[in-house]
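pls ignore typos typing on phone
adenosine-5'-diphosphate + seq
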Amino acid sequence: MGPPGAGKGTHAAHLAGRLGVPVVSTGDIFRAQVAAGTDLGRTAQRYLDAGEYVPDEVTNAMVRERLAADDCGAGFLLDGYPRTLDQVAVLDDIRGVDAVVVLRVDQEALVRRLLRRAETERRSDDTEDVIRRRLQVYADQTVPLISVYDDRGLLREIDGNGEIHEVRHRVLHVAGVLVPAESAGAPTPAE
Ligand code: ADP
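k done
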């Protein structure tokens, strides 16, 4: 979990590779559906473009189906789900989670990162107005989930400010998948 621009996608991909499980990114699935022009994509597009969450019943049905696939049998890493209390309830019903990693990043850094991404990736929701809306929606609808998972003892909060390799090190550390050389804080060759 983390606000837009926190680095969820970046770190999810690396961590999932280490854990040998697939990443299930709801944002990526929605964007793929939009690109493929499916009914789901058409439904999702107007919410994405406005910076609003796709309705829970649509998102939940999609995640339920995705997590039922064979490749998720031994585990999975969710990126961008759950984002609402209703989604938490559905995920509880599908399967419990082992840990919830939250990336905390200063607000100015977030906006800077998102505007930079807007220049390189041209996502329809990376304009300044929509970015502001997405940050507000995160504060209103998703921040309450943090205390829910904290109460369950599952929360792993991480400082998401700084260089990618620094944050990666923190993520791997809380996930318990650091190898000794990395414990010294050295960047990995993949960088
Ligand atoms: P970011 O976290 O940077 O905003 P994502 O790629 O995770 O980007 O999500 C992009 C958009 O996809 C969201 O603004 C929202 O419209 C939609 N979306 C993604 N995950 C969910 C979810 N769990 N529930 C509802 N909408 C979602």
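The longest helix spans residues 128-151. The chain has a mean pLDDT of 91. more later
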